[in-house]
Write a structure and sequence with these properties.
Length: 418
C-alpha cells in the first residue's frame, strides 16, 4: 500500500563520516586512503575489497567497519551492510551516520521493526533534520504503528513542507486509522508535489468504497479519466446508486480502453438498469464466451434474453446454468416460466418437476402447473393445481388468483357435464 521512494535517501550514504574527533587510526594508511579514493571514484566493489582488508587488519576500527558498510550500501547490498553498521555502533555507540544508515538498510531488507530503534536514536540526536524523522515514519508505517508513524511524518513535513514522500506517508498512516477525511488532503498534496504519487489516491478511493462513502470515491475516480479501472469503479458506483445514465459514459470509456469481461459486465448492468437491455446482451455474450462456466453470468445473460422476449434463446441458457449448479432451484424456476410463456407446456411441466424435486415449490408453481395442464386439456390435473394454488396463495397474487377462480369454475362445470 505504501512505499519507500525508490532512489531517495540512500544516495546520501555517500557522505563520508567525519572522524576528526576519533582516535588515531590503527590501519595501514594505504588501505583507508585507497578505500576512500575508490569511493570517490564510485568504484564501490573495489572499496569493499579494500575496507574488508582494513577490517581484517583491525576488527576494532569502527571507521573501517563504517566505510565497509557504506560501500556495501552503495552497491545495494543492504543485507551485507547491516552487520557492519551494527558493529560500528557496538564500537562507537550513538554514531549518528551509522544509526540512520542502519535504519535505512533495515528498511530495504524489510525489517522495519529492527529499523525503529536506530532511527529513533538518529531522530533524537538531530531533531531538526528531515531524514531521520522521515525514515522513522517509514519504519513505523511498515511496522503498522500508525499513530506513531503519523507523528513522525508530521514532524518531517514541518521540517520540509515540500517533501512528497512524507506527505504520502502521513496520508497512508491516517488512512490506516480510518481517518479518511484527514488523509485525503495529504494524498492530494503528495500528488501535487510529485505526480507519480497520484495513483495512490486510488487506494483512498477503495477505502471510501469499503466505508460506504460512494460519493467521495466517485469524486476521486473522476480524476482518472484515462484509467479504465477507475472509470469502471466510478461507473459501477454510479449505477449502484441508481444513476445508471451517468454511469454509462464512464463504463463505455472503460470498455473502449480495456475490454475485459468485468468491464463489459459492468456496462451491461448499467444498460439494463437504464432500460437499454438490447445493448447489454452482446456485451454479456462476449463476457460469457471468456467464462462459460460462470453460473451468475450465465443467469444474467439468460434473464436479459428473457426480458427481450427471446424465449427460444433464453431457455438453453437457463438449462446450461442448471447444469453448472445442479442443486440450484432458480434456473429451473426461470426455465419453467419461459416455457409457459412460450407455450411449451410439456417442457414447462418437466422443469416444474425439477423444482419440486429440489424442494423449491411455492404456490405460484401450482399456478404454472395448472396453466400447463389446462392448455394440454388435462382438466382434472389443471383443476387440482388451480385449487391448490387458491388454497395456499391467500391474496399474495391477486391477479393470478382471479384468473384461477374463473378457470376453476369453468373446468368444474365442464367436468360435471361429463
Amino acid at each position: 500500500m505504501w512505499r519507500v521512494p525508490a532512489g531517495r535517501g540512500l544516495a546520501s550514504l555517500a557522505l563520508l563520516i567525519s572522524l576528526a574527533a576519533g582516535p588515531a587510526l590503527a590501519q595501514p594508511p594505504d588501505l583507508m586512503a585507497e578505500g576512500a579514493k575508490a569511493l570517490d571514484a564510485k568504484n564501490y566493489s573495489g572499496a569493499v575489497d579494500l575496507f574488508s582488508k582494513a577490517v581484517a587488519a583491525d576488527p576494532k576500527d569502527y571507521a573501517a567497519h563504517f566505510q565497509l558498510a557504506l560501500s556495501y550500501s552503495l552497491l545495494d547490498k543492504f543485507a551485507e551492510a547491516v552487520p557492519e553498521y551494527k558493529t560500528t555502533l557496538d564500537l562507537h555507540p550513538g554514531l549518528y551516520d551509522a544509526q540512520i544508515n542502519l535504519g535505512i538498510c533495515l528498511l530495504r531488507v524489510k525489517d522495519a521493526a529492527a529499523a525503529i530503534a536506530p532511527l529513533e536514536g538518529a531522530a533524537a540526536q538531530r531533531p531538526k533534520e528531515f531524514r531521520p524523522a522521515y525514515y522513522l515514519g517509514m519504519a513505523r508505517l511498515e511496522n503498522r504503528d500508525f499513530p506513531e508513524a503519523a507523528t513522525a511524518f508530521t514532524a518531517a513535513i514541518a521540517l520540509n513542507p515540500a517533501a512528497p514522500g512524507a506527505e504520502l506517508g502521513l496520508a497512508h498512516a491516517l488512512a490506516a486509522q480510518a481517518r479518511l477525511d484527514d488523509a485525503e488532503p495529504h494524498f492530494r498534496r503528495a500528488a501535487q508535489l510529485d505526480p507519480t504519487y497520484k495513483p495512490d489516491l486510488l487506494a483512498l478511493a477503495e477505502l471510501y468504497e469499503k466505508a460506504g462513502r460512494a460519493t467521495q470515491a466517485i469524486a476521486i475516480y473522476r480524476d482518472f479519466p484515462e484509467n479504465p479501472g477507475a472509470q469502471e469503479r466510478m461507473g459501477a458506483l454510479l449505477s449502484e446508486s441508481g444513476d445508471a445514465a451517468a454511469a454509462i459514459p464512464a463504463l463505455e470509456s472503460a470498455v473502449a480502453k480495456s475490454p475485459t469481461a468485468a468491464n463489459r459486465v459492468a456496462l451491461a448492468q448499467a444498460y439494463e438498469k437504464n432500460k437499454e437491455t438490447a445493448k447489454a446482451i452482446p456485451l454479456v455474450a462476449q463476457a460469457l464466451a471468456a467464462a462459460p462456466d460462470d453460473y451468475e453470468l450465465r443467469m444474467f445473460y439468460a434473464r436479459l434474453l428473457r426480458d427481450q422476449r427471446k424465449f427460444t434463446e433464453a431457455a438453453p441458457q437457463f438449462l446450461a446454468a442448471a447444469k453448472l449448479k445442479p442443486d440450484a432451484v432458480q434456473p429451473w424456476n426461470e426455465l419453467a416460466g419461459v416455457m409457459v410463456v412460450s407455450e411449451q407446456y410439456p417442457q414447462a411441466i418437466a422443469a416444474l418437476d425439477r423444482v419440486h424435486a429440489l424442494g423449491g415449490d411455492t404456490p405460484i408453481h401450482d399456478y404454472l402447473r395448472a396453466i400447463s395442464f389446462d392448455h394440454l386439456h388435462q382438466l382434472k390435473e389443471a383443476l387440482s393445481h388451480y385449487n391448490k394454488f387458491l388454497e395456499e396463495s391467500h391474496g399474495k397474487s391477486p391477479d393470478e388468483e382471479f384468473k384461477a377462480r374463473q378457470r376453476a369454475r369453468i373446468i368444474q362445470s365442464e367436468l360435471n357435464r361429463r
